């Protein structure tokens, strides 16, 4: 197939190293690895930055610059129009069979380009963004955002939701095919060949002198990721247990201050945001990988970190919320704990550290399962199969 990947989200930038941008890179790379002819149109992280990691041609518009409130929303809408213009010119040459669009706030670019090109429109949905934005940041043009989002959801030929929870929300807006395809991991990066010597070498590479039990958390530091729960659990664990944090975000200062209040600041090691290629080193250095999500009533994430933890062969302790119990086979692949409860998290960590051989054996089985079924190539194959199963009228052919 000829696939045009489109993303007009100013927060998901081509060439960026954050989770959503890595997701965009991963699914694009997976389509290409399966032999499809793929090109990308999106927003540049840095118009002069390197794009060597992208295995396909990338066409980008400049980022409009950071802003808040009405100006931020206006810049998002203006960026959509620039992406439409650029993607339309690429589509004339590429003649895509499929336009694969990541749902974006005010984002109608993929739908419009697919319609003009007569291509199948596949819409990847990580969350209903109008509601999410209104909750966490506030929306000035909320009615417009919801109207555009509803129209794009309803017009897509196939919606790909990252979790059952997201799919449920999608189905309240749009009828028609919606397929659940959770996130995956990059099999080129995460090999999972773990032994104690590897852990020592990984800690040395990261500049860590700590030789005792090491927990880790990777990814953005935002209120809904639960790093505060992990820090709150440290006083309940032996002083030899330390926490390594590979990521950055708006709650870092608050959590660092809380670690001082709790008297555990010397047990928390902050790496800041790291290159994606460093995440396997972080996991190799660690005895336990944490996904300590709080008790959110509308949890619908498909955490990239969880699949990377599994693929790396690092024992996992995670909150029993959303799709995490299913992803961990209800405890077979990792220890599940009560969301938002530091005491429950500490209990789970203690269980893993008390019998490292059993934990490592479980993690090895999880690693084998992940590499057999959970890579991005496997996820991309699911999406391609779903496209080929579509029944599209009005003389339009389903790509084969």
Please give the share of residues in helix: 40-55%
**How many separate domains?**
2
CATH homolog superfamily of the largest domain: Glycogen Phosphorylase B
Residue windows where pLDDT falls under 50 for at least 5 positions: none
Tally of individual helices: 15
Mean pLDDT: 93
State the end-to-end CA separation: 7 Å
Shape: globular
CATH fold group of the largest domain: Rossmann fold
Q: Profile the largest sheet.
A: 8 strands, parallel
Which radius of gyration do the C-alpha atoms yield?
A: 21 Å
Structural class: alpha/beta
> What's the architecture of the largest domain, going by CATH?
3-Layer(aba) Sandwich
Would you report the number of β strands? Answer: 14
What is the CATH first-level class name of the largest domain? Alpha Beta
Explain briefly what this protein structure is.
The protein is of the alpha/beta class and 400 residues long.
How would you portray this structure in words?
Helix 8 links the parallel strand 9 and strand 10. With 400 residues, the protein is α/β, with parallel strands linked by helices. 43% of the residues lie in helices and 15% in strands. The chain folds into 2 domains: 2-184 and 376-388, Glycogen Phosphorylase B (Rossmann fold); 196-373, Glycogen Phosphorylase B (Rossmann fold), CATH 3.40.50.2000.
Give a topology summary.
Layout: E1 2-6, E2 13-14, H1 19-33, E3 37-44, E4 58-61, H2 69-94, E5 98-102, H3 109-117, E6 120-125, H4 129-136, H5 142-155, E7 158-161, H6 164-171, E8 178-180, H7 196-205, E9 214-218, H8 227-233, E10 242-246, H9 252-261, E11 268-270, H10 279-285, E12 288-291, H11 304-312, E13 316-319, H12 324-327, E14 335-337, H13 342-354, H14 356-373, H15 376-388
Parallel strand pairs: 1-3, 1-5, 2-3, 3-4, 5-6, 6-7, 7-8, 9-10, 9-12, 10-11, 12-13, 13-14
Helix pairs in contact: 1-15, 2-3, 4-5, 7-10, 8-13, 11-14
